[in-house]
Design brief:
56% of the residues lie in helices and 0% in strands. The chain has helices at residues 25-39, 44-54, 66-82, 90-106. 26% of the residues are buried. The mean pLDDT is 82.
Length: 108
């Protein structure tokens, strides 16, 4: 069975995860509500890895918004460039960044 079938968001209105904008109090409140759903989702880590892996640029995925995923991508690219062995791919680094993000959220 696919990971997304276990997602808490399956029973939510999909529009909750795709705010019309990213600025302003209404958009920020909508993002916060979507992130609350993600916080109780058993597969939010897999959701975030998927979003990072395919380059999703809109919406809330795995408890992150567009800006947060861009920051994770930047960190992953920076880490991949700094890796001396060159054996780690950018995608693998993005997955590692997603795991760290999930761990940080879980410890809050």
């Amino acid at each position: 069975m696919e990971w997304w079938r276990h997602a808490a968001c399956v029973d939510e209105d999909p529009e909750l995860f795709f705010p019309v904008g990213v600025a302003g109090p209404a958009a920020q409140e909508q993002q916060a509500r979507a992130k609350q759903v993600c916080a109780r989702c058993p597969v939010s880590g897999e959701c975030l890895e998927y979003a990072l892996g395919v380059g999703v640029t809109h919406g809330v995925w795995g408890g992150t918004n567009e800006e947060e995923r861009r920051a994770l991508h930047r960190r992953a690219r920076r880490h991949a460039r700094q890796a001396s062995s060159g054996s780690r791919s950018e995608e693998r680094s993005a997955s590692h960044a997603a795991s760290r993000w999930s761990d940080q959220r879980a410890s809050r």
